[in-house]
């Protein structure tokens, strides 16, 4: 089960539902609330083809205790995330204006701070938070619905508003502007100037207009008429080469 459900919270929720049930199909209705149909089918097939035993009372009690500890850990993490998000607009206002406070908090947490974020080039910013496609990360699932070359920025509202065929192009554009606004916030912080979100709002509006223009249909090609032929004889330059050519083709 650990290899099939790589997300720790999905893994914990599935354990809380399955408990000591040997036949996974008996709890399909509850699993439908937290897992996709493909994941449920994979778990059911794996459960029917592997041999196992029911947990003893002591073992089940330890498992449930670990689940409760994970729930407390998640609630603490969410509380810390809310605190960081509430302070993000003060620390990096332009970054928040471009990608949102929640995503900005994830970016700063993964890089180590605003100074480190400002040093990362745009080509690497779009890969922050990317999950490598391995056998364990796929968990038996198909990879066609997974985005292989994008990370946190794929969750940006600007990118999510684009159709699927434009999302990767939009991620690159957002990453380029993110590198600029991160440096703007860092320079303002180092210089002691007031931090404002003007740059982030400006870039956000520019990207919004650019993405909407991408979705517009192409203009129909206009069939242009051929230009009027010029029947007048053009004057030729004189010179040694032209005189020789005339001598070659003149009548004898």
Concise account of the structure shown:
By secondary structure, the protein is mainly alpha-helical. It is built from 13 helices and no strands. Helix 5 packs parallel to helix 12.
Task: Provide an overview of this structure.
The chain has 252 residues and is mostly helical. It has helices at 8-18, 28-31, 37-49, 57-91, 93-99, 101-111, 114-119, 122-125, 135-138, 157-160, 167-191, 198-214, 240-249. α4 (57-91) crosses α6 (101-111). The protein is elongated.
Please supply descriptive tags for the structure shown above.
single chain; 252 residues; mainly alpha; 0% strand
Report the C-alpha radius of gyration, rounded.
31 Å
The overall strand count is 0
- What sequence of helices (H) and strands (E) makes up the elements? HHHHHHHHHHHHH
Provide the β-strand percentage band: under 5%
Give the helix/strand class: mainly alpha
Can you summarize the main beta sheet? none
State the separation between the terminal residues, measured CA to CA.
Answer: 100 Å
């Amino acid at each position: 089960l650990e290899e099939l459900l790589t997300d720790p919270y999905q893994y914990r929720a599935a354990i809380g539902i399955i408990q000591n049930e040997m036949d996974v199909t008996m709890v399909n209705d509850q699993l439908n609330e937290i897992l996709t149909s493909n994941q449920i089918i994979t778990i059911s097939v794996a459960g029917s083809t592997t041999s196992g035993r029911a947990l003893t009372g002591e073992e089940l009690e330890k498992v449930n205790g670990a689940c409760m500890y994970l729930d407390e850990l998640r609630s603490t993490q969410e509380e810390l995330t809310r605190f960081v998000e509430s302070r993000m607009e003060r620390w990096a206002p332009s970054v928040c204006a471009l990608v949102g406070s929640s995503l900005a908090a994830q970016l700063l947490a993964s890089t180590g701070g605003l100074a480190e974020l400002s040093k990362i080039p745009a080509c690497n910013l779009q890969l922050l938070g990317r999950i490598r496609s391995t056998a364990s990360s796929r968990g038996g699932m198909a990879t066609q619905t997974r985005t292989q070359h994008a990370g946190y920025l794929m969750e940006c509202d600007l990118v999510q508003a684009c159709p699927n065929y434009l999302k990767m192009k939009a991620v690159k554009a957002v990453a380029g502007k993110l590198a600029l606004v991160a440096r703007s916030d860092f320079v303002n912080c180092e210089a002691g100037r007031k931090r404002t979100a003007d740059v982030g709002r400006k870039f956000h509006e520019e990207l919004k207009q650019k993405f909407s223009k991408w979705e517009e249909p192409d203009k129909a090609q206009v069939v242009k008429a051929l230009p009027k032929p010029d029947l007048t004889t053009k004057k030729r330059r004189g010179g040694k080469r032209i005189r020789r050519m005339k001598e070659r083709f003149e009548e004898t």
